[in-house]
Amino acid sequence: MKDEKNTAWSVQSAETERKNAADVEDGQAGSGSALNPVLHEAGSDRASAPTARAGTGIRVLKRNMKRNGSRGCVTRKTRFGSRERDWLKGDAQRGCVCLYGASEPQAPASGPQTTSTAQPDLKLVLCSTNTTIEELCAQRDVQGLYLQLHGDLIRRLDPSERPLQMVYDYLTAMGYEDPLRVQQEAANSDLSCMIRFYSEKPVNADQQERTLLKGVFSVRKGKTQLHKWAERQVILCGTCLIVASVKDSLTGKMHILPLVGGKVEEVKRRQHCLIFSSAGPQAQTYYVNFDTLADYQRWHRQASKVVSQMISLVDLSCYSLEEMPEYLFYCQDVTHLNLRHNFMRLDGSGGLSNFNRFTQLRSLNLSHNGLGVFPESVCEIQTLTELYLSCNGLSAVPSHIGNLQSLQTLSLDGNRLDSLPEELGSLVQLCSLGLSFNDFPHIPCVVEKLCALDKLTMAGNRVETLDLCSLLRMTHIKSIDLRLNGLRCVKSETLEPIKHLTQLDLRDNQLTSLDLSSACNLETLQCQRNQLSALTLSGFTLRTLHSNNNRLTTVNIYPVPSELTHMDLSRNLLEYLPDWVCDSRKIEVLDVSCNLLSALPARLLSSLSLRKLLAGNNRLERLPDLLDHIPLETLDLQHNKLKELPESFFYKALNLKYLNVSANALETIPPSSQSEESLSTLQELYLTGNNLNENSAALLVGHQHLRVLHMAYNQLLSFPASKLSKLEVLEELNLSGNKLKTIPSTVSSCKRLHTLIAHSNHINVFPEVLSLPEIKLVDVSCNEQTEILLPDSLPSTLQELDLTGNSSLILERKTLNLFSNISTLKLDQKPAVTAGDAQGSSPLWDHGYAEMCGQRNKLCVSVLAVDRFGDSPEAAYGIFDGDRNEEVSRLLQCTMGDVLAEEIQHSGVDSVYMCNTFLTSHRKLGMAGQKLGASALLCYIHHESSEPGSYFSLTVANVGTCQAVLCRNGQPLTLSKVFSLEQSAEEMERIKMAKAIITEDNKVSGVTCCSRLLGCSYLFPWVLPKPWVHTEPLCSQDEFLILGNKALFQKVSYQEAVSTVLAIREPRAAAKKLCTLAQSYGCRDNVGAVVVALHIGKDSCTCEPSLLTTDTRGPPGPTPLPISVSPADPATPSSSSGIVSELNSELSASEVGSEAGSTASDEHPSSGPNARPERHCSLHPLTLCNMGPLMSLGAGTHTALFQRQPSSATFPSNQSDNGLDSDDEAPLEGVISNGSKLEVEVDIHCCAFQLRSGPPESPKDLDGRHDSRGSDYPNNKMRRQNSVVVSATNGCLLAVCGREISDLKKSPSTSSLFGKKLSNGSVVALEESHNIIEVALEAPKKKSGYFAAPAQQDPEDQLIIPPSLEQDVREQLRGQSPVVPGPPPASTPPSARDPNWDHPNPVISGLHPTTILKQDVYDTAL
Question: Which of 560, 634, 1139, 1165 would disulfide-bridge 658, Cβ 3.0–4.6 Å?
Answer without folding.
Answer: 634
